[in-house]
Amino acid sequence: MEEKSKWFAIVNPKAGFGKVKKEWPIIQKHLLSESVDFDFSITKRKYHAVELTVSAINQGYKKILCVGGDGTLNEIVNGIYIQSKYSQTDVLIGAIGIGKCNIFGKLYAMPKSYQGIAATIKEEKYFMQDIGMVQFFESRIRHKRYFAISGGVGFEAELNFNSNMLKESGRKERIHFLFSILKSLICYRTSMVKVQIDSTNLSGKFFSILVRVVTSNEDAFLALPNANPNEESFDIVVINNISRWQVIRNLHRLSDGSIQNHPKIKKYKGKKVTISSKPHVNLVVDGESLGSSPFSFSILPKSIKVLVGPDFKGVN
Question: Rounded to an integer, what distance in angstroms lies between the CA atom of residue 227 and that of residue 139?
Answer without folding.
Answer: 32
